[in-house]
Task: structure prediction
Amino acid sequence: MSDYQIRLKAFSWLREKSEVYDDILPRKLLQEGFEYDGIKIPLVSPQGIFKPRQMKLPLTITSISNGPYDDKEIGNFIIYKYRGTDINHRDNVGLRNAMAQNVPLIYFNSIMPGKYISVWPAFIIADMPNELTFKIAFDDKKLPIVKSNKISDSSDARREYITTTVKRRIHQQSFRERVLYAYKTQCTLCRLKHKELLDAAHIIPDSDPASKPTVDNGLALCKIHHAAYDKFFIGITPDYTIEIRDDLLREVDGPMLQHGLKELNKLSIQLPTKAGDRPNKEFLEIKYQQFLHF
Ligand SMILES: [Zn+2]
Result:
């Protein structure tokens, strides 16, 4: 079996699984891997750079948030650390060879323990031995991969654009997963538990330069309560008390207004169990002041 064929199989397998798992892949699935010619081929190992035994060049690279393989993001690309400090470690040599041959790789980003987002094709576009790092760019999934393993055409501008877009998507998905996990996948106001109807809302909006993608700047909210919080129909005090805007309290209408909004007035929000995940009181205060002056 050739490196090329296994690589193609890995891409198609991941495409299928990403759909099934809604883009968030459990580690166990990647450890077990896919079957090729009756042989199980895993996609990850305890190391960040992984080459299955059956292949000539690395297949996957993994960034573990806050772990030893944490990547720094500089500019519009991803910076990926060497394995260890030996420039000539076989894993580092493997990535260098993948760069020389323009071979597409799979990039995994661990958004929380045991949960991964996958991106491919990923390319090593620069080797920086002085910093013990590689520079990584993503490219278009639709590009044909030619028989020699290489992608048929490489364009720096296109790769830069795609990498920027992918990075934004990783950040958004990561924020959503971490916030929903902290709130046990339920709306902090009404306790609705259906993930499809839930959002990870920012307290300080994403568009504000002071906004942080941390769980303490997030709230798990159902779609209607997310919109209502963003549009100041609802305020949350720094003491976690829900306040419904005065004019709404005076309004008389059907069950959504009555049960979905008015009856929440003066109740407390459902808090994450972990203290560090709870909404930051300063962020709540900023937003609450805006609510009061709306
Ligand atoms: Zn709700």
Observations:
- The first strand starts at residue 25 and ends at 26.
- The CA atoms of residues 232 and 291 lie 5 Å apart.
- The chain has two domains: 3-179, 184-292.
